[in-house]
Structure formats: structure tokens, C-alpha cells
Amino acid sequence: MRSSISAALPGSNAVQPAPLGRLAALVATLALLGAAALPPLPLALASLAVGALSPAIAVAQTDLDAQTGADTMSGAAAGSAPRAAQAALERARELLAQNRAGEALDAIDAGLRSAPSDARLRFERGVILARTGRTDEAIAAFTELTQQFPELPEPHNNLAALHAERGELDAARAALEDALRAFPSYSLAHENLGDVQLRLAERAYQRAIDADASNRAAREKLALARELLGKVSAPAGSAPGAAAQPSSSSTAAH
């Protein structure tokens, strides 16, 4: 899930506090509109050296941490993947670069017939499944990888991205925590976890308001959380607070 969940704040690493007048307007808007849901938090899929991001999940190109990604994934398969598996992986990446995802999946499946335990091929298969909207199969693919190669952080990250896209925030948080147990300095997973925790905060504030409609403090915090979520969800270059839209074209990750 840089791989898995990430969607950095466009243009700045710092979050500016909302002026009091602006905060009052946000609270008033919430009172009128109720608990209007923001779009799903966009998360980025991890990839190997080339790979591809799913336009249904990712809104920005990401890079893998220098200490993880292709080198880690290759290490898991070192000494076991035959030349046929490497050739299949390279062919699949060529096809993905041409937006021929179906043929790329066929190439991966052909390689897996020769090397069914190759972690790189299986990871790439999960990425392609996610890219083509076969989410249930992608979740199953990444789940199997996390069980058989728990030391690899990227499958945990991508699993979290898919859960977050579905609004399954608790499952996404658990997957990211697993990624960080596997690789504590995995910067993207830390960033993604922050995004998920922000969405969890929004949910908690809303539940506080549901339990006590007069809880003004919770309303103010909810407004601020949603303002920040709007920025997190906005693609680079968009107006502040604009909702993120799925990309219309795939983006290669390096």
C-alpha cells in the first residue's frame, strides 16, 4: 500500500487551523446538512519496480521506501523463482505499461504455473486484480501473501488500501499495523495509518453527536476533521476541500 494507502496533503505538510469564523460556518453547515459523508479516503497501492496503481483506489503516483519494495520482494523469492517466473513478470509489466491488464494477468498466471510460490508474481497479480476492479479476489490474494510472507510490508499495505476503499477502517488500521510490525520504518504505512486514524476520528466524533446532539465540542472537532479530510482527499492542484475523483487513467509506480 510508495505502496498501500497514501494520499499526502497537497502542497503542504502542515495543517493550518481554521479561523473561528470559518469554524462557525462549518458547524452551521453541518447542522443543516447532517452527517454528509465524504468520499472514500483514497489510498495508493504498493507496487514493484513498475506495477500500476488502481484508478479506483489511488489518486497519486507513489514510490516504495528505499529499504522495501522490489529488493524485499525479490529476497523472498531468491533461489526459488525460475527464469520462467522472471520472464513472466517482465512480460506482465510490459503489458501493464500498455494498459493491457487482462493480458498481463494471463502472463502472471502462466508464470505461476511454473513457480506457484513466487512472491513477486503473486504480489503483481494482486495489484492487477485491484486495478481491474476484482476487489474480492485482490483482497484474497494479498491476504494469502500476508499469511505466507508476513515479513513483507507491501501486501499488508495494499490489503489496508482495499479495506479502506470499502470503508472497513478497523480492518485497514489492523493491516497497516501489521505492515509496521514487519517494517517499522515504512514511511508510507505510517502516513497511511495517519489517514485512517483521521477517518476513525471523524467516525468517533459523529457517534458522540449521535449520542448527544448538544455536544458542541464534538461538532467543532467533527467540522475540523472533515475539513482536513477534504484536503487529504483532494488531488494535487485542486481547490481546497474539493472531493477527490478517481483517476481516469492508470499511473505507473516506481
Major sheet size, sense and barrel closure: none
Taken from the alpha-carbon principal axes, the silhouette is: elongated
Proportion in β-strands: under 5%
Helix content: 55-70%
Average pLDDT metric: 72
Q: Nearest-angstrom radius of gyration?
A: 20 Å
Number of DSSP helical runs: 10
For the record, give the distance between the C-alpha atoms at the N and C termini, rounded to a whole number: 13 Å
Total beta strand runs: 0
Extract low-pLDDT stretches: 1-38, 47-72, 237-254
Indicate the structural class.
Answer: mainly alpha
Secondary-structure element order, as H and E?
HHHHHHHHHH
Description:
This protein has 254 residues and is mainly α. It has helices at 20-33, 70-77, 83-97, 101-114, 119-131, 135-148, 153-165, 169-182, 187-211, 216-233. Helices cover 58% and strands 0% of the residues. Helix 4 (101-114) runs antiparallel to helix 5 (119-131). It is elongated and about 65 Å long. The two termini are 13 Å apart. Residues 1-38, 47-72 and 237-254 have low confidence and may be disordered.
Please give a handful of descriptors for the protein shown:
0% strand; mainly alpha; disordered C terminus
Structure summary:
Helices cover 58% and strands 0% of the residues.
Strands, helices and their partners?
Layout: H1 20-33, H2 70-77, H3 83-97, H4 101-114, H5 119-131, H6 135-148, H7 153-165, H8 169-182, H9 187-211, H10 216-233
Helix pairs in contact: 1-10, 3-4, 3-5, 4-5, 5-6, 6-7, 7-8, 8-9, 9-10
